[in-house]
Amino acid sequence: QVQLVESGGGLVHPGGSQRLSCAASRNIFGITVFSIKDLGWYRQAPGNQRELVAAISLDGSTNYTDHVKGRFTISRDNAKTMVYLQMNNLKPDDTAVYYCNTGPATDRYWGQGTQVTVSS
Fold it and tell me: Pairing state of beta strands 4-7 and 18-24?
């Protein structure tokens, strides 16, 4: 089985930065997923649907939703089965629970997410 565990969330002031991490199971399943799948960071704000905010392919190419372009950076370390999201110049609208998953998402891989709250 593959488990994805997100961490790094918390309370941050507007304009601040936060780095999220996602660790996948270091078993054959997690290693396989990281070696063959595109990965993504998703978020869900209260009352909203979960949305994809950043994606990274196997070759390292990235895509971002317009809301975060220029502020967020996704990266991956396949050897460590880790994916990261560096978030800069955070805004209150970035407040949400952040999740990692494959891209497109795989239902059974959803974890608990990590809460990011941007507030003064």
Answer: antiparallel
- Cβ-Cβ contacts under 8 Å for 87 (sequence gap 6 or more): 17, 18, 19, 20, 68, 71, 72, 94, 116
pLDDT of 26 reads 78
Listed in sequence order, the DSSP H helices in 26-92 are 28-36
Residue 83 Rama label (left phi>0; alpha psi -120 to 50; beta)? beta
The CA-CA-CA angle for residues 24, 94, 37, to 5°, reads 30
The number of helices, as runs of H, and strands, as runs of E, in the chain is 1, 10
CA-to-CA distance for 43 and 39, rounded, in angstroms?
Answer: 14
Q: Per-residue pLDDT tens for 16-51? A: 999 999 998 877 777 788 888 899 999 999 999 999
